[in-house]
Structures are given as C-alpha cells and as structure tokens.
Design goal:
The protein has a domain of about 220 residues: Aromatic compound dioxygenase (Protocatechuate 3,4-Dioxygenase, subunit A), CATH 2.60.130. About 15% of the residues lie in helices and about 20% in strands. The chain contains five helices and twelve strands. Helix 1 packs antiparallel against helix 2. The N terminus and C terminus are likely disordered. Pfam families: Dioxygenase_C. Keywords: Dioxygenase, Oxidoreductase. This is Intradiol ring-cleavage dioxygenase. GO terms for molecular function: ferric iron binding; oxidoreductase activity, acting on single donors with incorporation of molecular oxygen, incorporation of two atoms of oxygen.
C-alpha cells in the first residue's frame, strides 16, 4: 500500500500516506476508516485516467477498486434515451447501513469490487456460482448522462438464503456487501456469487445509490434504494447445481407476479440481462435510471405491492435467519 513518511507539523511527527496525514495515527493504513479509503480510491482512479494505465490498474486492483477487466467492460456501457427512474423499493430488514442495526458503511474495507469474502476480523468466503454484477447508472437530471462519481452500496443473501451481519451464525460476517464508485461511464461492478431464493421472495439483490463517495456513511443520504430481480431462466439453471437445493423448492412457490416487491410491474425495469453459464459464472447487467432531484423514499417503508413491519419490513416466515413469528417479506 505504500511507504509511510513522517513530517513535522505543530512540533510533532505525524504519519502520512501518499502525502495525506493519517486520521488515525495509531492505526495501520488499512484501518483508517471509509472516508480515507474513498480518497485513496479516487486519487488512484484519477491516476489511471491521466494515462498511467499499466501501473495504475495494478494499484487499483490491489486496493479492491475497479480492476482491468471492469475498466475494459465499462467502455461498452451506454445510456438509453427514455429510461425511467428505477422504482424505489424497501431496503429490507438486513440493510447493514446503520438504519436497522449494524453499519457496514462505517467499516474500513467496505469499498471493494470483490464482495465474496468478509473483511476485518473474518475472511470467510461465501460459496456459490460465480456472478459479476454490473450496474450502469444514468443521471436523468443531467440529460441522461453517465452518473460518474455516484457511490453504490450492494448487498444480498448467500447460497443458503442468509444475510451476513444478521442471520444466525453470521453476525460476525460481512460478506456479500460492498461499495463501488461509478466510473466515467457510470458503471460499478462487483464480483460475487449468485444469491439464493429464500421462502417468500423472488431472488433479488439490494442496492442504494448515493450522490457521491462522501455521502455513504449516512443511509439518509441515499438518493435511490431499489432491488435487482434475478432472471428466471438463469435462476433455474443455477439452482440445479449443488448447494442451491432449497432454492429449487422456494422458487417454485413464488413468481414475479406474486412477489410483494416486484408484483406491481413484474420487475420489468429491474430485471437485468445475463450472459454466461453455471460453470464459469454469469455477468449480470442492469441500466439504472437515477433522478437526484426527485424525493427519494427512506428505503425503510413496507415493500411496494404489500407487506407490513418495522424498519425495512420484516423477513418472511421461516426464512433463514428469521424469527418464526415474523410473517411478512423483505
């Protein structure tokens, strides 16, 4: 990550990194907090844009930023005229953004492209069919331009239908959660695993969009909160593989028309394209229209299409990690 240098400031030696004073003088570079991580990531992204492609791409990959593959694929992202604003949806009971208990957004290391493993005190890796999630952000309030600089927080359940930070046995884990900052094409890209289908919900991925990187530590700053509806044909192929057995039964009991989040329009604007296979993995891509000038919901209300509950709604009855008395979906 670099070499520390000391400088004289106010008659005492302060540790610095890449010319910036470390905010937590007694901690390592990796433990300086999310704000410091964001500044480091953006500084190196600027280096890449200025022409140091070879060396800078290596640095970005080491820091969990956009890797060479995502930089290449980002160049193909386009905007669509007439794209509608992505529907506002509940963040559910497991957001991990501080609005309902744990807050991953305050943790150093949350800004990363590969979200398969936990970071911090654990390095547990979630298993499952490989998946690359690409979200192409379009700034509807700015002539449908690519929304460069917007920060996106993504989270979803694992192969067993459980959520890190909340489900039984996973409160010390934070895998399948991460933040990326949109590049010049408006793209964020995450390396993950295909989520399960748990009882009562269509397979989905949650995400929150923030106007910039400095806003991510406060969930109230989100300008859009929505969900990705996983394509049915791909779900059926993935769930036929080992480890997803429970998802086969659960998927057969729900549809986009009956799901309490996607039922209003059957997820027509939230279903991504998907390419690949269950062996090498899938690339899932969705174009997301965002209008920062409209009034964003808090992300904590009951899901559209029905549902009750406290903050973020409540998990489905009998769902992994959910209390049996809870009866609505998230």
């Amino acid at each position: 990550m670099g070499v520390f240098r000391a400088r004289r400031s106010e008659d005492r030696q302060l540790r610095t990194y890449e010319g910036r004073v470390l905010p937590r003088q007694g901690e390592d570079v990796d433990d300086q907090g999310v704000g410091f991580d964001v500044a480091t990531l953006l500084g190196r992204r600027r280096l890449l844009q200025l022409g140091g492609a070879g060396a800078a791409a290596t640095v970005l990959a080491a820091c969990g930023g956009t890797d060479a593959a995502s930089s290449t694929s980002a160049s193909t992202a386009t905007t669509s005229s007439g794209l509608a604003e992505v529907p506002e949806e509940t963040a559910g009971p497991y957001p991990g953004d501080g609005s309902n208990g744990p807050d991953a957004l305050e943790e150093s290391g949350i800004i990363r492209s590969d979200i398969r493993s936990s970071f911090g005190t654990s390095t547990t890796t979630a298993e499952g069919v490989p998946m690359t999630l690409q979200l192409d952000l379009v700034d509807l309030a700015n002539g449908s331009a690519a929304y460069e600089g917007a920060a996106v927080y993504v989270w979803h359940c694992d192969r067993d239908g459980k959520y890190s930070m909340y489900s039984d046995g996973l409160t010390a884990e934070n895998y399948l959660r991460g933040v990326q900052v949109a590049d010049s094409s408006g793209r964020v890209e995450f390396t993950s695993v295909f989520p399960a289908c748990y009882s009562g919900r269509w397979p989905h991925i949650h995400f929150e969009v923030y106007p910039d990187s400095s806003s991510i530590t406060d969930a109230g700053n989100a300008i859009a909160t929505s969900q990705v509806a996983m394509p049915q044909d791909v779900c059926e192929v993935v769930y036929a593989t080992s480890g997803y057995e429970q998802s086969v039964t659960n998927l057969a009991q729900v549809s986009l028309a009956t799901d309490n989040v996607f039922s209003d329009d059957q997820g027509v604007s939230q279903t991504p394209t998907a390419t690949g296979d269950a062996t090498s993995g899938y690339v899932v891509n969705l174009e997301v229209g965002v209008d920062a000038t409209t009034q964003a919901a808090t992300g904590m209300s009951a899901p559209t299409g029905g549902g009750q509950g406290g903050p973020g709604g409540t998990p489905p009855d009998g769902a992994p990690g959910a209390a049996q008395e809870q009866t609505t979906t998230s």
